[in-house]
Amino acid sequence: xxxxxxxxxxxxxxxxxxxxxxxxxxxxxxxxxxxxxxxxxxxxxxxxxxxxxxxxxxxxxxxxxxxxxxxxxxxxxxxxxxxxxxxxxxxxxxxxxxxxxxxxxxxxxxxxxxxxxxxxxxxxxxxxxxxxxxxxxxxxxxxxxxxxxxxxxxxxxxxxxxxxxxxxxxxxxxxxxxxxxxxxxxxxxxxxxxxxxxxxxxxxxxxxxxxxxxxxxxxxxxxxxxxxxxxxxxxxxxxxxxxxxxxxxxxxxxxxxxxxxxxxxxxxxxxxxxxxxxxxxxxxxxxxxxxxxxx
Length: 295
What we know:
2 domains, about 20% strand
């Protein structure tokens, strides 16, 4: 079955805001309302891609159907595929990939667009992300807080996919999101590929976006572990020397083995089954959908 597209007539669009939803009903309405409450001078469109949610998400969108373009997938095609569907229907010069579990500030759009227009050397930009308690959210390695807490724009190696701002031309240049990632690690991959174009990854000190975290990944715990590990293996295989890939596999084997032993020690042998399967898959290097020739 093909996705169902409900288009919204568009004109004068500067930025296309792409939101992918999967059973995120509790976050979805506040997210959309925060966008619509923006005090921006720039034209924007909202493209919402729903991955076959069954939690009332579509019903929650009813008040906004005349203010966004809705793409409904008949099954959960994954985060990267859905974002690429949004990109294929985007009409803005700029694009903002935005998680459902976020709230943008009234000035977020203006801050991002104005920086993007003034700094063509910036391949991708992130507004400052904040936790629910107002503290600065540090994406990636928490030991490298410095660049994300500065009061001036900073060049960094990585920005979160929770609020990922770039140009539509850049996304076309790099070929969009790599659909071999179902979910997780796709933002790391994007940053690496964008940097290879000779542009910079920039963290801004303003344009705050509240990011709750976890609201865009309503999978069961086993699926979360699986996708994180599978995506990590693919990422290392794609971008790093073979020795790194093999070392990473060894580390994962040690982790999975430890989880199996821990399950038995805690008298929960049933929970070890997932990790036993993981160990077998890592040894055989046959985790689902890890391509042999990464693009």
